Amino acid sequence: MNHLIDPNLHIWHWQIPLYLFAGGLAAGILFFAALNTILGRKEKYPVSVKLSPFIAPVLLIIGLSALFIDLNHKLYFWRLYTTIRLQSPMSWGAWTLMIITPLSFIWCGLNIKEILPKWDWKYKVLIDLEAFLRKYELVIAWLILIYALILGVYTGILFSAFNARPLWNTSILGPLFLTSGLSTAAAVIVLMSKSQLERHYFARIDLMLIGIEIFLIIHMFMGFLASTQVHIDAANLFLGGPYTTPFWLFVVSLGLVIPAILEILELLHYKMPAWIAPVLVLFGGLMFRFIIANAGQASRWLY
User: pTM to 2 decimals?
Assistant: First the structure.
């Protein structure tokens, strides 16, 4: 009869959805950087490969800080790294973050001279280290690509593995959170790039990802409504319940549908502020994680 668990969960606050947003966005940015490097498009899409990845370490630090703040026993966080438990999402997440965070710094180090041409490492050991890592740039890109996908999916699995809450008890959340993270990353690249070629390329990618998100959201609710009563009750939180207005207004309308319409109009060469659509996508992605986190804690197995 723990009051923090029954009848509703009250243990995850703003830190968790903030981490999920920052982690998913960082994963998406690193994924596009690695993918375009592997495909030989470094010069064609320079912002996605060389500039936007500088945001990723900052986002990962923000996310890790939020997780640390959320811990009740902060001095014992290191125990996550004394074992590997393949059946534990927390273990997967801890080790993935341990690997992808230094990789993100290495990627920035390899591209820092593109941003700061006068940058000088000064020390010979650092110059030699950069030369050594540059020889294995493709290997690093493949590692980043793999771990970015794991991190993006993990942000959803962190919830879906929590079977005690019906709203989170769906395999859709993993691919949905990954798609959302990639979409917000594409939006950041559109926002940062001054090249019309690069903006339009990632606007098309974002349109595709938004379409996938809408499909997954519809499929998720269809699955809930065709399931047990507690899952129907979980769906009803968004279909007439307390989360109906914020979800359909902030996530679906402002975060998905309107940006998609604006991106289509821009691709058709209609004149409009290019920053509106990506900013709305970022806002919708953040709201999506806060709403899913709070609504999931409100859903329950009890009638």
Answer: 0.90
